[in-house]
Specification:
Rossmann fold; single chain; alpha/beta; five-stranded parallel sheet; 9% strand
């Protein structure tokens, strides 16, 4: 028997498909929430265009997630730079940035990226997996953009157990997690250490852009943190 909240989500997405020309974009992060959104979208929309915002290109741990989507749904995922990249460069996070770049690099936020994707694809409906029960950081993003007219949130009242139940019901493998907030890989300590331990080659690629990320590894070694 289908869970009530899942049935409601399916009804909601079917209604959205009728209202939005059967076409949608899906904000895909590789996490479990975005997997549910992608699966829901593919069940109800004729045209589904997933997109991914990456910190840097060429990371194997990200390419693996993209390959899973290709194998399961036959979809290629569009790649766009994440707004965190612009902030990291502008404010010299784990890197050296000249004052000239600091002054000239404009604030390129999520709204600007969403508008660019809509312009590139001609699809003006974005499916986002943010929930009211998310972490404080993600809730802040959710409430900031919940009034953005082009974005809909089919999971907004879901809990983690609902997401896990959906994945189990539809036999969707639970994705690996880096501990990152939204990009699959970011510059948080948890994400960097996960990358170092599980994808050392990717860590080296990221270090080419942000040469001081090795500090988090040295700090762990120095304090003996497990």
């Amino acid at each position: 028997m289908e869970y009530t909240i899942i049935k409601e989500a399916n009804n909601f997405m079917a209604d959205m498909a009728k209202k939005n020309n059967n076409a949608c974009l899906v904000a895909f992060s590789g996490g479990k929430d975005s997997l549910v959104c992608l699966d829901l979208a593919c069940r109800h929309f004729k045209r589904v265009v997933p997109f991914f915002m990456s910190l840097i290109p060429g990371l194997c741990c990200i390419d693996e997630k993209m390959a899973i989507v290709k194998d399961r749904y036959g979809l290629d995922i569009l790649r766009y730079p994440h707004f965190l990249l612009f902030k990291a460069l502008k404010y010299s996070i784990y890197c050296r940035t000249s004052y000239k770049i600091f002054n000239e690099l404009e604030d390129f936020g999520l709204t600007a990226i969403y508008k660019a994707i809509i312009s590139d694809t001609g699809v003006d409906t974005i499916i986002n997996g943010s929930k009211e029960t998310d972490s404080l950081w993600r809730r802040q993003k959710y409430f900031k953009f919940m009034t953005f007219e082009n974005v809909i949130y089919p999971l907004k009242q879901w809990r983690k157990i609902d997401v896990l139940s959906y994945l189990k019901i539809y036999k969707i493998p639970l994705p690996s997690s880096s501990g990152a907030q939204s990009t699959g890989v970011d510059l948080s300590t948890a994400s960097l250490l996960w990358l170092y331990d599980n994808y050392p080659d990717d860590f080296e690629r990221l270090q080419a852009y942000f040469p001081f990320i090795g500090a988090v590894v040295k700090r762990r070694e120095y304090y003996g943190i497990k």
